[in-house]
């Protein structure tokens, strides 16, 4: 008799963005004429850069002729893209990686979800709280997260990040096998300094822990002192896997391309004490369960590393960051406590009533603007909401005007 | 201390196609001027259909303008493609599926590898032997396959398919929780009749087993009595998940798109006896670990269901099947025992010496033609080799002429 993987059943039935959609729909039924502006889901709105469009047309044309047709590509991605990544995202920061340490994927979500397959099912995990739900949910599905007790998973260490500790998670006093870090952070929009990140690397090296470092929003960093990659820290290659995405960097949420760095120096132990290279294991995982990313998407990603490509994607990033700036100044003018938004496309707002969902509903009914309740990202998100800067200028400005009118 | 998932270490270090590449490279070093023709790896060679190229250009253009730009799509795929699949792949065969039962993916390999996440880690599995290695390897990685004993995995039931039993696997006498079937079969190129498939569905219903049915090659079926989908069999919705791919159907090995059918009627039990819908679980899995397939690839797939698209992809399928026909007749003329090739793009040849790798090397050195050693697909593949019909006519003809010269 086929039995179900019962770990799946431990997951809560409600899912953050589905719950939001439900509440928005309920509102629409009551006020069908209201024009809602969503600053909720972190999806981009601006079209792809001209160099990307051009590269994709060219790739499509190649596929129409036998001489240039491409079938299966390497599961790890094409070298033209892996090399462009090395040359542009790492070498200029003094990080020397090998091409075999870069794995192209169809977006960071897949790999941040799948990476836990490499470690033992009963390893403990730690997450900053609030956090992107995929980290925990993917561990729940295999049983690694344990069971829910008082709204928290029993085998997960939650490291609160709130205004009270200036969004700086405390390094655990005991050993945690695997730690998920995301900087610039989704959802809080806050960043980590090199000094703080160094503490984490040292912690991992000392405890033989692994850091899964999600750098999906690194392109939004404006402060030159903020690290773009954990490999800017000495020793990180021995303890960290890093995830990158073109989704927000270049508007690829519909194109699907990103990459993961698994350094060859990184090992994990067997019960018997043998050290195993995770690079080799991840390669095996990808070759078995993945067949490479669309050739057209890979050519699209390559194009953003050309001189024109860099300029064009920077323009769009600047466009979004202008939204963030306006949001920060408006919210502050209105007396709200707000965080993030300077090196990340997210604004984290501390609600006055201390209740994420209540604020969400008040804002929806009062200003017809959708935000994301912070508690949906974890217990320490209660009392906050997230706004994204990915809207158009027009919609963002209008949303802010409505909020101003509503809050006064 | 982070511990490695030691199940990965049980996998053999050698990987079929890597081993082949190694041997081919060794040959090239010795005979650098020899021109090798590969009929080994099952990758397509003909360019994409004009309708597909047109649809992709159009989709790329949409992404260049804000009004038509698409960000995140549904994790389950766009309804335009799901509906086209329902209307063309199922309705004409009298199969009524719900749109929510179709999950678009980035190729069948991902889903055939990931689907085992839904079932308990200690469920037993059965495979026809020889078989596509992903089915077993993905189960090895989570520990479900057990350990290797005499070249076989201890928790896997192997159902031999050889010339001796006319490539018809015997229905197991005891209960197996999950059975992987692939028809038309990779690697043997053989098919299953409705009558035989009905036995499997009845077996699964009786034993409360689940069938993972890989139909990736269904477009190559020419015999009208051969089933294209397991859902042509009554009761299959209660016990089967089906995998489809556009990789071979429409030359999408580099475009990356396929789909999986998870009927709502299909349930698996908890230890406590509760029945759980796998459709809901797979949806949760995909929403957590997958972010949808490239919009451009989905528009490409949609185009093959237009009247022109159907004609164009059929022309390419016919092109490959002409290769298969010529291969079958040539091999038979030369006195080889060959199977498959009539409803599938693979020819399964029984070697005269009974040794897959020995034949592989003799053919490589004697005719400079690459085939795939059958033993690489499982113990019952020993003594066979696989040829693919995916080459160009010119290369295929030349390879056959060389084989003729070499074998006489």
Can you give keywords for this protein?
homodimer, 408 residues, alpha/beta, four-stranded antiparallel β-sheet
- N/C terminus separation of chain A: 62 Å
Largest interface, with Cβ-Cβ < 8 Å? A-B, 83 and 83 residues
Oligomer: homodimer
Report the strand count of chain A.
17
- Measured by DSSP, the beta-strand proportion of chain A falls in 15-25%
Tally of helical segments of chain A: 11
The largest β sheet of chain A comes out as:
7 strands, mixed
| Unreliable runs of chain A | none
- Order of the strands making up the biggest sheet of chain A: 2-10-9-8-7-3-6
Provide the succession of SSEs of chain A: HEHHEHEHEEEEHEEEEEHHHEEHEEEH
What's the shape of chain A? globular
Helical proportion of chain A, percent range: 25-40%
Describe the structure.
Two copies of one chain form a homodimer. Chain A is 35% helix and 16% strand. In chain A, strands 2-10-9-8-7-3-6 form a seven-stranded mixed β-sheet, with helices on both faces. In chain A, strands 13-14-17-16 form a four-stranded antiparallel β-sheet. A two-stranded parallel sheet of chain A has the order 1-15. Chain A is of the alpha/beta class and 408 residues long. The mean pLDDT of chain A is 97. Chain A has eleven helices and 17 strands. At the A-B interface, helix 2, helix 4, helix 5, helix 7 and helix 8 of A face helix 3, helix 5, helix 6, helix 8 and helix 9 of B.
């Amino acid at each position: 008799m086929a039995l179900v993987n019962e770990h799946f059943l431990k997951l809560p039935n409600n899912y953050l963005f589905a719950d939001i959609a439900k509440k928005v729909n309920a509102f629409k039924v009551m006020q069908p004429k209201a024009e809602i502006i969503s600053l909720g889901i972190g999806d981009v709105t601006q079209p792809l850069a001209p160099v990307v469009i051009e590269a994709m047309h060219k790739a499509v044309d190649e596929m129409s002729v036998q001489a240039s047709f491409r079938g299966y590509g390497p599961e790890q991605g094409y070298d033209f893209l892996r090399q462009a990544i090395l040359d542009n995202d790492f070498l200029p920061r003094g990080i020397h990686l090998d091409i075999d340490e870069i794995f192209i994927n169809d977006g960071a979500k897949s790999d941040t979800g799948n990476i836990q397959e490499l470690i033992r099912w009963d390893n403990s995990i730690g997450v900053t709280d609030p956090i992107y739900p995929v980290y925990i949910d993917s561990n729940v599905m295999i049983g690694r997260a344990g069971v829910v007790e008082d709204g928290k998973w029993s085998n997960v260490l939650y490291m609160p990040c709130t205004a009270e500790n200036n969004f700086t998670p405390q390094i655990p006093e005991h050993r945690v096998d695997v730690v998920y870090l995301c900087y610039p952070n989704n959802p809080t929009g806050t960043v980590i300094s090199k000094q703080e990140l160094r503490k984490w690397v040292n912690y991992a090296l000392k405890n033989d822990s692994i850091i899964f470092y999600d750098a999906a929003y690194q392109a939004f960093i404006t402060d030159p002192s903020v690290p773009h990659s954990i490999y800017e820290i000495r020793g990180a290659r021995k303890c960290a896997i890093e995830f990158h995405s073109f989704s927000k960097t270049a508007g690829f949420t519909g194109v699907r391309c990103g990459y993961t760095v698994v350094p060859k120096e990184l090992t994990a132990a067997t019960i018997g004490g043998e050290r195993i290279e995770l690079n080799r294991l991840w390669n095996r995982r990808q070759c078995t369960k993945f067949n490479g990313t669309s050739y057209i998407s890979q050519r699209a990603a390559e194009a953003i590393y050309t001189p024109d490509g860099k300029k064009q994607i920077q323009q769009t990033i600047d466009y979004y960051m202008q939204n963030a700036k306006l949001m920060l100044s408006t919210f502050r003018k209105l007396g709200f406590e707000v965080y993030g938004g300077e090196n990340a496309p997210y604004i984290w707002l501390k609600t006055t009533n201390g209740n994420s969902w209540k604020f969400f509903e008040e804002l929806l009914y009062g200003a017809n603007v959708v935000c994301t309740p912070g508690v949906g990202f974890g217990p320490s998100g209660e009392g906050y909401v997230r706004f994204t800067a990915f809207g158009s200028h027009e919609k963002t400005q209008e949303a802010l005007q409505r909020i101003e009118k509503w809050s006064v």
